[in-house]
Design a protein that fits this description.
The structure is a single chain. With about 140 residues, this protein is of the alpha+beta class. Helix content is about 20%, strand content about 25%.
């Protein structure tokens, strides 16, 4: 087809409607998310979690001895480094976390350790305990 008859005609400008800005014109052709939340669901599915490792008898015995030492030194508010398993809120598994802080108290009813900054850690989730109070002890 040959458009010579219309190619040089002036561009029509409406007298009623204001001309649209280039930004607004471009926005008409921008992509949109037809499935709201789909990307978030894919990212959540792809997020990795770990399984909680079970301690063997010797590891449990070491933790029990360390807990006894902690109880005997509780009045000193010892500084501890705890590695514990934190279950994931949304899917099976979780992640191992490490926290260092001064021990405030042991809640025997709830079976938790409470640090000075109010961090609460379930005793059953603890994987490893370290601190200066253990450096002076033998066989721990």
């Amino acid at each position: 087809m040959n458009y010579d008859d219309i190619i040089h005609l002036p561009h029509h400008v409406s007298k009623r409607h204001p001309q649209m800005t280039m930004l607004n014109r471009a926005a008409q052709f921008a992509p949109f998310a037809a499935l709201t939340g789909h990307d978030a669901a894919i990212q959540e599915t792809a997020r990795l979690t770990s399984s909680q490792r079970l301690l063997d008898d010797s590891d449990n015995e070491i933790l029990d001895r360390k807990m006894a030492i902690i109880r005997s030194k509780l009045a000193e508010s010892p500084t501890l480094t705890l590695i514990y398993f934190q279950p994931d809120e949304h899917k099976r598994g979780g992640a191992y976390k490490s926290v260092t802080g001064r021990l405030k108290k042991i809640d025997d009813y709830l079976q938790t350790l409470i640090l000075a900054d109010e961090t609460t850690i379930p005793i059953s989730s603890i994987f490893e305990i370290d601190g200066e109070i253990f450096n002076k002890m033998d066989d721990v």
